[in-house]
């Protein structure tokens, strides 16, 4: 607990130190505290949060996609499945989905990519769902490739999920010139679109043993986004308490504080209490791992009591295989004794009817 207090104390004063583009192959330096008028004032952030109903939902990818590229590439974009599955989400009162984009899908065809994003937003809006879009990601497979995506590995959690931009691009500033146009084009297109709730600029920077190697790209993506001045708030969720420099950069530059927590209720409550010292609204953009005792039954009521947005990982069992736990693959592909993530089976029936009833109740449905 003392370590957590120290790390958050270090993070919170670092209000928006937007750095210059990093030199390639140099070690990232700690972020120096600095004031930035570009980060929303706390009062504006709180007013924005009060203007929305309590946010609940899931990290969403259609069951027919193994990763972000399969979701967004022209040949595999699947609006019929998106429509059907978001309908199931609407039926239990979910009003927010967190959805990952991918820069390679944009690079293939910027105009077509944005049309598909707009099509997704139209479907989500029909179901009264707002969207948190995620740009970059340090999780899972490090070398994304456009085109046909691999088949799922039997019984393996997220076997085909890909990083963005991946290796070595996430740590080499010479490649950033290709990433800035992507970020700014998408932001300029949807900067005033009320169907977009929030821009999550970087998912779990430093994961996959990158540590501070991704810090320069985090700095830059915040700077690129601020240049566009979107009407929606910006964020990047903290997830690893020992990543002091990254936590400082993320929290200090976020209009709304977001975070990930897959732990049990007592620890999760302590995290909420500490993050509230920022004075900013909180959204938990990843939680719910049943075998770690992070469940709808104990965590979702906690988040509602604390007025923290609740976005769990996973909606429908599909090609991502995230019903299997991170570190316990089942080589025969058999049903886990207890699903790790997901709410619905592929036919739309709930994995646990009692969970769905609780979700409906918490969402006043």
TrEMBL record:
Residues 146-170 are annotated as: Disordered. Keywords: Signal. Residues 1-19 form the signal peptide. It comes from the Bacteria. InterPro entries: GH (IPR017853). This is 1,4-beta-xylanase. It comes from Hymenobacter monticola.
